[in-house]
Amino acid sequence: MYIEPFQLKDLPFRLSPDPQFLYLSKQHARAKAYMESTIWFADGFVVITGEIGAGKTTLIESFLKEIPPDVVVAQINQTQVSAVDFLQSVLSQFGFSPFKMKKGELLATLNNFLIEQYAAGRRVLLIVDEAQNLSMRVLEEIRLLSGVETTREKVLRIILAGQPELNAKLDAPELVQLNQRVRLRFHLTTLSQTETTEYIRHRLEVAGAGDRQLFDEDTFAEIFRYSGGVPRLINTLCDTAMMAAYTADRDRVTATDIASAVSELQWTEFSARPYRQNTSGATTSSATTSGAAPRAGQADAALAPLARLVVVEGGRTVAEIPLVPGRVIIGRTPDNDLQLDSRFISRHHCQLTTTSHSTVIEDLNSTNGLYVRATRVHRRYLRDGDVVLLGKHELIYADERMNRSRNPSDTLPAIPALGGHDEETLAGDELPSDFALGPTRNPS
After folding, report:
1. Where are the alpha helices (DSSP H) in 163-285?
2. How confident is the model at residue 43 (pLDDT cuts 50, 70, 90)?
3. Are strands 156-162 and 123-128 parallel, antiparallel or unpaired?
4. What's the per-residue H, E or C state across 256-309?
5. What share of the chain is helix, strand, coil (3-state, %, to 5)?
6. What angle do CA 338, 341, 347 make, to 5 degrees?
7. Are 167 and 175 in contact (CB under 8 A)?
8. 71-76 β-sheet, strand order
9. How far is CA 407 from CA 119, 121, 310, 393, in A?
10. What whole-number distance in Å separates Cα of residue 6 and Cα of residue 406?
11. Shortest CA distance to 351 belongs to which of 333, 368, 338, 342?
12. What are phi and psi of 56, to 5 degrees?
């Protein structure tokens, strides 16, 4: 990677929500202050909304790092659940094993826990990320929980964070009682051009750049033009541009590198894009695929898929993702482009980067890793028919660049027993001969 040539100590534009890289624009600082108010006010019920990639999850992670020790927190990220599943998840976060309890038992246990914590002088906070996916029935349960109180004050503080659809849900007539309990609402908008420049410089400084200017002055306007000030898109474009500078043997990012990155990602100007897009160039959709977040693989109609990824668990296909130019982040939590809800999957497990020439899969420092042909790999240029193991999931890759007619979901290819690559330095579609990385390991 480009860390050494740029003399950095860390990757400055990771897509994972790392609190140490949080840039507090005026609006992010205000949103964080609203979150903090839930701790100090007994009637704390705050709603934070923002577009995909606006920085909501990073803001939450930063807030959680500064929580006082007398605050007990339940953080819920999986929100496409029933009312009973939601209550079980909350109790599980509080240390209970509630999965055999009926709804009445769940509510009684939760109410007793809240009162006990209040009596012990502890405050209880419930944080729900991706709250726009909550059903009306679950939101009604949250309203009932928010009403648990002593003779003096409310016992449960609540933060709901989600995409703008959350506001529309809360404004529905059937949720008027819940809406009345919300004390503060705040919507995170995109960064301005000035803030975009400050954001880039901040992340570079945290990564070890110090006072060195690694991006030419004329690059910032271009980055803003194509990212629209969306933090996640800024990260994607800057990371790709730094790779372009690195491969061109430059220690600074120039306008040429930005143009190269835009071309590789096949982006248009942000103002010319559909209303909402994620970093992989996919428009958001309400369609849901079993085992996957609804954002993954909803390809822009203007872009024909260059490849496809079939996701298999226990011999059953649970998702099929069209790959267009851009990136797809795979992990356990809902902020990923493809969510695989499994204890074997890390929060942000791996990423796929697709260009007009190739698709690369890269491990994001996951616990259980990626395996191809029983060999653990860190980074690999995928070939048609490759099977990548992630815990109990198989990712089957089908390259459609050569207009292949085979549908990878019709016949699942067998997993070869030996071999594998860890192709760290390849360019384009060049592939070396097979080489081993060490002893064969069992991914389970």
Report:
1. 165-170, 176-181, 193-204, 219-227, 231-247, 255-265
2. confident
3. parallel
4. HHHHHHHHHHCCCCHHHCCCCECCCCEECCCCCECCECCCCCCECCCCCCCEEE
5. 30, 20, 45
6. 70
7. no
8. 71-76, 123-128, 156-162, 45-50, 184-188
9. 61, 60, 10, 19
10. 43
11. 338
12. -65, -45
Q: What count of residues does the chain have?
A: 444
Strands 375-377 and 379-381: unpaired
Between vectors from CA 233 to CA 231 and to CA 235, what angle results, nearest 5°?
70
Tell me the C-alpha distance between 432 and 152, whole Å. 70
Both tokens of 436, joined, read 């081993």
Q: CA of 196: how far to CAs of 10, 127, 233, 238, in Å?
A: 20, 28, 11, 11
pLDDT digits (tens, 9 = 90+) for 398-416: 998 765 444 444 443 443 3
Residue 321: φ, ψ to 5°: -110, 120
Instruction: Please give the order of strands across the beta sheet that includes 326-331.
Output: 338-339, 326-331, 350-354, 359-363, 379-381
Do the beta carbons of residue 188 and residue 60 sit within 8 Å? no
At 233, the amino acid letter reads: L
Tokens of 313: 């668990």
With 0-12 CB in 10 A as exposed, 13-18 as middle and 19+ as buried, what is 282? buried
Q: What is the pLDDT of residues 49-108, one digit of tens each?
A: 998 888 898 999 999 999 999 999 999 998 989 999 999 999 999 999 999 999 999 999
Task: Yes or no: say if 287 and 295 are a contact pair by the CB < 8 Å rule.
Answer: no
